Amino acid sequence: MLVSVSQTLVVPLLPLLPGLTGSPAADVSWLLTVTLLTGAVFTPLLGRAGDMYGKRRVLLVALSSMVIGSLFCALSSNLPVLIVGRAFQGAAIAVVPLGISILRDELPARRVIPAIALMSSTLGFGAAFGIPAATLVVEYSNWHTMFWICVGLGVLDIVLVLLVVPESAIRTSGRFDVLGALGLAAFLVCLLLAVSKGSIWGAGPTIALALGAAAVVPAWVWFELRTISPLVDLRVSARPAVLFTNLSALLIGFAFYANSLSTAQLVQEPTWTGYGLGASIVVSGLCLLPGGVAMVLLSPVSARISNAKGPRFTLAIASVLMAAGYVVRIFTSHSIAGIVVGATVVSAGTAIAYSALPALIMHAVPVTETAAANGLNTLMRTVGTAICSAIVATVLTTVTVSNGGRVAPALSAYLIVFVVAGLAAAVAAGMTALIPARKAAS
Fold first, then answer.
1. What does the pLDDT look like over 18-36, one tens digit per residue?
2. Rounded CA gap, 333 and 318, in Å?
């Protein structure tokens, strides 16, 4: 939960950071971009390292990265230092697949599904609680305080892991695939920079990055299929149970992030737009809080559904629920109550979906590849959020209304976002039909 919260801490700060750091808004946006990049790159790498060298050991490395990054951000208002700190924080998101793998190794079979449901849901409800908490800190205290809180809780986490979490005896043999790691990193950096910075950098650099990403793929695939201990076992990843679960994860990540990005901004839009509510930053953050509560309450419900009907069924109903939430959002964008209801329905679907995804992965991969496989699934969610961020930013800055020199997103821009996100969730629901059926875990 702490690492998930740390990923979104700067979102409420973004409008203020140019003034706080003395830097242009385009440069300040790197505080989100760099976290996305390092999270995407290090999640599968640390997952594989955990399978090979010990999950508890690598979990401590990831938590230490979060503490180091938080310390950098707590001590400085200098943008380059903050970017370095956010890079360390981004790498720490690997604790989620590592934690899921540890739970699979250590718990009795009957407790595994409920435990991983809760662990996986932290990706969602950490963000849902993180933004409201950050808005309160920004409003009533020094903005560095939230990073000091992360430092203190991170150190406590490390102590608790040392005292409570055992090291698993289950290991994957072989050498770490350094070339595979470099190839995957090159692909992800090119792809995510093209997606997240394309609207700022223009067509030339974006096309060059996209071509670079496309050029890396065939060479990387060729190498991974021929190396003895690949970073990503592509033969396992190509199994329908893994492939379509990962594609569903990408779409679910997209639909979830559209909800978080749009809600806080929508309620803050000025009243002169004709639909804006002119709410404060604190109110905008609190609008996400009911969704966070729903995610906490529904993760054990998701586990019970998976035990009774199987995780494939759970993922299907979760995706349908998210799509239904966006239908609600299309018709309820003029009142805070309606916005909160729609956002909460989407968050509820997200909690159930995030709980089902790792269960589907664990049913399809060997126990020695749990952390790496769940790391790849987490990566797909991250890629989905990156694509979502780029599309939402493009739509909200392109479809606008103006009044007396003032410019803001038009209501139709938000409706476009809701339609696209709802379609993503609906496609994810349809994709579950392609995942091979399996009896529920006992």
1. 888 888 877 887 888 888 8
2. 23
**Continuous H helices in 54-108:** 55-75, 79-91, 95-106
Tell me the three state secondary structure of residue 11.
Answer: coil
Q: Residue 310 CA to chain centroid, in angstroms?
A: 24
Give the number of other CB atoms < 10 A from CB of residue 104.
Answer: 23
110-140 pLDDT, tens digit each: 888 888 877 877 766 666 677 777 777 777 7
- pLDDT tens digits, 257-311: 898 888 878 888 888 988 888 888 778 778 888 888 888 788 778 888 888 888 8
Amino acid residing at 40: A
Distance, in Å, from the CA atom of 276 to the CA atom of 318, rounded to the nearest integer, reads: 30
- Whether the Cβ atoms of residue 125 and residue 296 lie closer than 8 Å to each other: yes
DSSP secondary structure, 225-254, as one string: HHSSS-SS-HHHHTSHHHHHHHHHHHHHHH
- Give the predicted TM-score (pTM) of the model: 0.82
Residue among 220, 159, 151, 154 at smallest CA distance from 191:
220
Q: Tell me the one-letter amino acid at 75.
A: L
CA count, 13 A, side-chain hemisphere, 394? 15
Q: Which of 2, 292, 293 is nearest to 147 (CA)?
A: 2
Tokens of 438: 């399996």
CA nearest to 263, candidates 201, 187, 342? 342
How would DSSP label each residue in 325-388? HHHHHHH-TTSHHHHHHHHHHHHHHHHHHHHHHHHHHHHHS-GGGHHHHHHHHHHHHHHHHHHH
**What's the average model confidence in pLDDT over 92-103?**
87
Q: What burial letters (b/e) apply to 182-209, b meaning 16+ CB within 10 Å?
A: ebbbbbbbbbbbbbbbbeeeeeeebeeb
* Alpha-carbon span 43 to 53, nearest angstrom: 15
